[in-house]
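Re: beginner question about structure tokens

> Can someone show what the tokenized structure looks like for a real chain? I only ever see the sequence side.

Sure, here's an example I had lying around. Input first:
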Amino acid sequence: MSGAPLTIGRLARRHGLSRSTLLYYDRIGLLHPSGRSAAGYRHYTPGDVRRLEQICLYRETGLPLAEIARLLSAAGTGIAAVLEKRLAELDGEIRRLRSQQEVILRMLQADPRSRPTGRLDKAGWVALLRAAGLDEAGMRLWHREFEQRFPRSHHEFLEGLGLPEREIQAIRRWSRTPV
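And the corresponding structure tokens:
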């Protein structure tokens, strides 16, 4: 972007926002235009654009606007703690959603009238890995690499298969033992 200021409409379009969103951000003190034209139109500078980019990035994490305002006014302090807290909240939400997912899958499996869900379960994954040529040692190596490189993702993958926590922990222990 050049140094020329942007109008509210151009800035909104550039960031996929509505004009009313930018007006709201101005009203609550989150993003003020740096100046106005002779006709009273709001003008946003490159610095304003960078601030809006930060706001948009924080919004993508699901942070509330008040928290974003606090982070921006604190000039970078405490960001890691806020993001870690948000990540923990998301982890809890994911666990709750997985639990709901498990209940729905059990209900569908118990209903003889229901169609297959099209989801790949543990048996499907094992069959797929065996078809790809992995034997027991190969599967252990696959899990071992997954566990070593991405432990959180490995856990989430196993949860996504609908496995109970007890079995997930057993698989993760098994994958950490030497081949």
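Each token stands for a local structural state, so reading them left to right follows the chain. Residues 79-110 form the longest helix (32 residues).
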